[in-house]
Structure formats: C-alpha cells, structure tokens
Amino acid sequence: MKLKVLSLFPGIMEGFFESSIMAKAVERGLVSYTLTDIRDYATDKHHKCDDLVYGGGAGMLMLPGPLSAALEAAGSPGARTVYVTPGGRLFNQAYAAELAREPELVILCGRYEGVDQRIIDKYVSDEISIGDYVLSSGEVAAMVLVDAVYRLVPGVIRGESLDEESFTDGLLEYPQYTRPAVYDNMKVPDVLVSGHHANIVKWRMKKRLEKTLLYRPDLLQGKGLEGELRAMILELIGQGGEA
Ligand code: ADE
Predict the structure, then answer these.
(1) pLDDT bracket for residue 243 (50, 70, 90)
(2) Cβ(162) – ligand 1 distance below 6 Å
(3) Does ligand 1 have an atom closer than 6 angstroms to the CB of 134?
(4) 129: which of 89, 109, 169, 185 lies 20 to 30 Å off by Cα?
C-alpha cells in the first residue's frame, strides 16, 4: 500500500512512520509512504498557506492554491483521497478494513479552521472524522487513521492476532494476563491456567460480552445473538431463567 500524506507540519509524523511495526512494514515493502510539506507549494515569498474566511468567522482557512499544487504533485489521479476533519464520516474498524484494500491512499491533514471547500469538492473522496472531539492537529487524526489501516494490510500483522481483536466481530476484547501468575495478590483466573480449552473459549466469550454490555451496549444492538451467546447475555443481565 502506498500512503501519501500532505500536511503543513509533516515533521509531527516522521517518528511514527520511522518506528516499530510501521518501520518493519516499510522495510518489508508492504507499505511505502511520502510526507509532503504543503508549504513547499506556496508561491508567494512568505510561503503563505492560510487566509481569512469569506463571510466572516473566527480563524483562518488553508488556501486552495498550495493545496491543489501539492495534491497535483502527489500525482495520484483516481486514488482514494481522504481529508481528516471533525466534520467527516465517523471512522471505525469496518471503514479501516475498506481503506486497507486500496492500493494507494492520499491523506490531507487540515489545520486552523480547515480547508477551502473547493479543494474538498475537487479532490477529496472521503471526509473522515476519527471521533466526536476536535483536535488542533489533523496530523494526529491522520496517524490514527493510517495506524488503523496499514496494520490490516496482509502480512503486516499475523492474521490470528487480528481475528479476536475488539471490533473485528463487533465485540470488545476479553481481558488478558501474562506472568507472574500472582501479581500484587491478584491471581490469574483459574480457568486460564486449567488447560481446559473449551472452558477458556467460553470464559473469554463471556468476558467479551460482559465488557461490551458494560462499555459499548450500542455494539450489541441488532446483532441477533443466538444459542449459547444469547444465554450468556441473559445470564449477564440477570434474566438467566428466561433464556
Ligand atoms: N481534525 C481535528 N479534529 C479531528 C477529528 N476529530 N477527526 C479528524 N480530523 C480532525
């Protein structure tokens, strides 16, 4: 997958692209990336990239000129082009999986009050928000998006690590433990050291349901849980007798 990220502050993202799993994915040729400084495409002597908003209002907008020059130079006609903005469609795991199937992603990071609408109309295929809060830095949102997407590119992470993650099948992940078996007087649950595989699977599913009910009941809505899962849910919400 090719990633082309355009920003006024590309330095914010360098460490992210040069470290850990991303660095390995790049080294193995699974991912390639470019970080473009939009300011390099400003044509006036002060390298101006923002201006006041027509119609009035607080803050500055990113100018269309440098943005379109930078996007044209990225040279990806037809490539999926994402603008990260709190005003976009809400990002989630399914959306990340969809983007991970693209051979190339162009990602535009906003600053200030955002970008001129004509840039969005002309170049952007996806306006994406990473959550219902406002960041001062589109670069942070772009890193969140890239991180969720590139790790789903085949070969970057082992498949079985992905299978049981939170959201992959619409439930949150079960709690996990490592050595020591007793830490600060807290024991690893007996079932996990019992060696009884079927009981471990059942315990983990129950914990996933419990956590999802507690923190994200919205994920269970319309899921049509049946059989053992339904019985577990009813037990968890104290209606075991009616299962
Ligand atoms: N830029 C600022 N806030 C953002 C958000 N919540 N999502 C995406 N981009 C952003």
Answers:
(1) very low
(2) no
(3) yes
(4) 169
Q: Are residues 81 and 137 in the same domain?
A: yes
Cα-to-centroid distance, 218 and ligand 1 (Å) = 22
Residue at a domain's end among 117, 142, 159 = 159
- How far, in Å, CA of 202 to CA of 217, rounded? 20
**Alpha carbon distance, N-terminus to C-terminus of the chain:** 47
Q: 90 CB under 6 A from ligand 1?
A: no
Residues 64/69/70/73 CA torsion (nearest 10 deg):
150
Domain end point (choices 159, 191, 213): 159
**Are 145 and 196 contained in the same domain?**
no
Number of domains observed in the structure of the chain: 2
- pLDDT at res. 241: 55
- Kind and range of the H or E run holding 90: strand 80-90
Residues 27 and 89 in one domain: yes
Model pTM score: 0.92
How far is the centre of ligand 1, averaged over its atoms, from the C-alpha of 132 (Å)? 8
**233 CB near ligand 1 (under 6 Å):** no
Are 37 and 150 found together in one domain? Answer: yes
Residue 243 lies in a domain: no
